């Protein structure tokens, strides 16, 4: 019954009894139907989470006890690695090696936050030196309460773990709303959590559409904190909903991240990381380095090599050996990316790709695409496309590269490649972005902070920063009664 909602420790149908279709993006076939959650289901889920937080054992366990459950969840995910990765391929379209990487990462995220939960037993209290004699004070960290987590479709199970694992580690209880495009692997977390000994209500999963299941979660008075990953317009709506009763919010939104390549970079290295930066996961990556800036002497030779290598990328079904580019997630995304490409053709020069690969018209495939010679104010240069579409421009000076790189309303990620490490460090510091790579693009580590500047979001996930998202800080200050005091009763 895993295609149902998971509420209060049990899989159950939506109150309306309705379901929605889940489509395999490689062939447009419906392969599953999943419960279509609505406001009533969200209400039940939030109430279960509220009870589990206000009265249940989870927030009252020691960090070490919570760690044991989270480690068992990590172990269970690792034990089902192949099955979960194949489900991810069917649901999302990504190539199997990338899905395996995601699932390994997901298990790792649970283990990482298990360790941080255990450490909270010693680190959740911090003494505060006070200037005034007679008082002692300490800061204690406590779980923020019921967390509402709303996640996207590009890394379905991994994005669930980025929110669920730190929230549970902190002692919060959670209502998770996976994307309607890819609900399958997140739903598995319910059974995994239950088998690992997570108490009922500590994790609830409501599948369904944004306006029907997402929005009621953002507006529910029983939710203390919202954590969202997705588009800027939806993030803005979520922040507005949170404003009404002052819920805490963390947002990880879009990007149009630059990769600056200096001419002293070996061409093979540049080609490898440029392609990894935009074609990995079909370019459906918020941090994708979709704007490449190349120093002039390298520009022409690099463009020639890039066009050649992009044309060689094996496109196909995610389970086929050697495939490095699968279909996009669904029809809506396919149309969005193809129409962005059409717009790009009016704004710049199409260097390679630009269409649906021959013989693969049955799925939501798009060729690896490169545009050059567009103006700095071109729509394709400025807006997030979320597909395998790269824009390349040249630059003459370091200052010009930094100016163009930072000229964006986004600030999620940025990358710089150069043999001169002093220069690379200087440029890295000059970027207005939350995630900066030197001589690579995209590798993501559970230990390091993840999130954006400007319209790319608020707050940081992963590492200790991710745990802090789900912790409140309380000061406890005590007076030493043996000391003199008296204001009214002198
Ligand atoms: P996309 O359009 O590519 O799916 P979104 O940012 O809209 O990107 O979706 C990310 C997540 O946000 C999904 O789980 C989606 O269901 C959810 N969502 C969409 N609209 C809303 C909304 N108004 N309130 C809450 N969640 C929403």
Please give a structural write-up:
InterPro entries: Ald_DH/histidinol_DH, Ald_DH_C, Ald_DH_CS_CYS, Ald_DH_CS_GLU, Ald_DH_N, Aldehyde_DH_dom. GO terms for molecular function: oxidoreductase activity, acting on the aldehyde or oxo group of donors, NAD or NADP as acceptor. Belongs to the aldehyde dehydrogenase family. Pathway: Amine and polyamine biosynthesis; betaine biosynthesis via choline pathway; betaine from betaine aldehyde: step 1/1. This protein is α/β, with parallel strands linked by helices. It folds into two domains: 271 residues, Aldehyde Dehydrogenase, Chain A, domain 1; 181 residues, 3-Layer(aba) Sandwich (Aldehyde Dehydrogenase, Chain A, domain 2), CATH 3.40.309.10. Helix 2 packs antiparallel against helix 5, helix 2 packs across helix 6 and helix 9 crosses helix 10. The radius of gyration is 24 Å and the shape is globular. The model has no long low-confidence stretch (mean pLDDT 97). It binds adenosine-5'-diphosphate. The site of adenosine-5'-diphosphate has 17 residues, from helix 7 and helix 8.
Give the helices and strands, then pairings:
Layout: E1 5-7, E2 10-12, E3 19-24, E4 29-35, H1 39-54, H2 63-79, H3 81-92, H4 96-123, E5 125-128, E6 135-143, E7 146-150, H5 156-170, E8 173-177, H6 184-195, E9 203-205, H7 210-219, E10 225-229, H8 232-244, E11 248-252, E12 258-261, H9 267-279, E13 291-295, H10 296-312, H11 331-347, E14 349-352, E15 369-372, H12 379-382, E16 389-395, H13 398-406, E17 410-411, E18 413-417, H14 421-430, E19 435-438, E20 453-454, E21 457-458, H15 463-468, E22 471-479
Parallel strand pairs: 7-8, 7-10, 8-9, 10-11, 12-13, 12-18, 13-16, 15-16, 18-19
Antiparallel strand pairs: 1-2, 3-4, 5-6, 6-22, 11-21, 14-15, 17-20
Helix pairs in contact: 1-7, 2-4, 2-5, 2-6, 3-4, 4-5, 9-10
